[in-house]
Specification:
- By secondary structure, the chain is α/β, with parallel strands linked by helices.
- Helices cover 41% and strands 13% of the residues.
- It has two domains: 2-11 and 121-225, Periplasmic binding protein-like II (D-Maltodextrin-Binding Protein, domain 2, 3-Layer(aba) Sandwich); 18-120 and 228-325, 3-Layer(aba) Sandwich (D-Maltodextrin-Binding Protein, domain 2).
Length: 337
């Protein structure tokens, strides 16, 4: 199926960006940072940082020249593996992968979040007219997620299942999920004719899919948790401690990018198209990111309910007392939740 889906993606003009692991480098001097992102508008702050060379700018203010390396991966499992192997310094992924790796490295590498990338609703969409709610999903359906059981989309689906059938049934729908990058899944859903009938997506891919009259929303993450920050950036405690100037330049760059994106949506849209080379109409993109439900901010919002849920079902062993347990508290502490 994977080959045919990639062919569909190409024919539909949906951007597929190549990604590769950087060679592991477990230690490096101050003045180098390696960042891994994934697909979608939720990574727009990183697009702005990259386009405007904001890390380099703030590095010079700290008196250092910073070399920035960028790579693109798909799925929280791949992102977490890259961070643990030392291939990257900053990981971009959902709150689900963050909590998994925070729990796994508790008392050792002490990986925590650096910042949120904003607040965005994620939709579970389907081209199966019989699937109106998650209760209608059967063994005839297959749902694409970035990483099975680990991605924030998978955790949202488990949260919804627990709400529907009780905590013991949290993984009831896992058997219907498969790992696929967002561009590939979107192309398959739009075209139809494959085993894939659903996709727990993110913007702009969910919006592109919904332009097809055969595709509809089954579940909205905001209906589950309210407005929340689904995607974050995280790092090891060692990188933060050993590279204070580089780390500070990165956080200052993110904050500047958030201000830019939130207050100039047109320029933000241009940046996304320019950096990602996405084949999307500018007016369509601007309409998506101008949605009042979207907020570009480094401050995390409403992440703790998912953390508490993951502890309750045994997905993590350490129970965070608050969101501050899995977010670094820097010189300018975040005021989040």
């Amino acid at each position: 199926m994977a080959l045919s889906i990639k062919t569909l993606a190409a024919s539909l003009g949906i951007s597929l960006l190549a990604s590769s692991f950087l060679a592991p480098n477990l230690a490096h001097a101050e003045g180098e940072i390696r960042i891994a992102e994934q697909f979608g508008i939720v990574y727009l702050l990183l697009n702005v940082v990259r386009d405007q060379q904001l890390i380099e700018k703030h590095g010079k203010e700290e008196g250092i020249d910073i070399k920035v390396d960028w790579t693109q991966l798909s799925g929280g499992a791949a992102i977490n593996d890259a961070l643990l192997s030392g291939s990257i310094d900053i990981a971009g992924a959902g709150v689900g992968p963050l909590l998994t790796i925070w729990d796994r490295t508790h008392g050792r590498q002490n990986i925590k979040a650096v910042a949120s990338l904003g607040n965005f609703p994620y939709y579970l969409v389907s081209n199966n007219p019989h699937v109106k709610t998650i209760a209608d999903i059967t063994d005839k359906d297959r749902i694409a997620v970035p990483a099975v059981g680990v991605s924030v989309q998978s955790r949202f689906l488990q949260y919804a299942a627990a709400k529907q059938w009780g905590n013991k049934e949290f993984n009831r729908l896992d058997k219907y999920t498969l790992a696929l990058p967002h561009p590939d899944a979107t192309a398959a859903l739009i075209a139809g004719g494959t085993e894939l009938s659903g996709h727990f997506s993110n913007p702009p891919f969910q919006d592109q899919a919904l332009k097809n009259p055969n595709v509809h929303v089954v579940l909205d993450s905001y209906d589950l948790l309210g407005p929340n920050s689904p995607t974050v950036l995280f790092a090891t405690e060692k990188f933060r401690n050993d590279n204070p100037k580089t780390y500070k330049a990165f956080t200052e760059a993110l904050a500047e990018a958030a201000e830019f994106a939130q207050h100039d949506k047109g320029a933000a849209a241009d940046t996304y198209i320019r950096v990602t080379k996405a084949n999307i109409d500018r007016d369509e993109l601007l309409k998506i990111i101008d949605n009042p439900q979207y907020e570009f901010t480094v401050t995390p919002k409403n992440t703790y309910p998912l953390a508490e849920f993951m502890y309750r079902i045994g997905a993590i062993k350490h129970k965070p007392e608050s969101w501050k347990d899995y977010f670094f508290q820097d010189a300018k502490p975040l005021q989040g939740s």
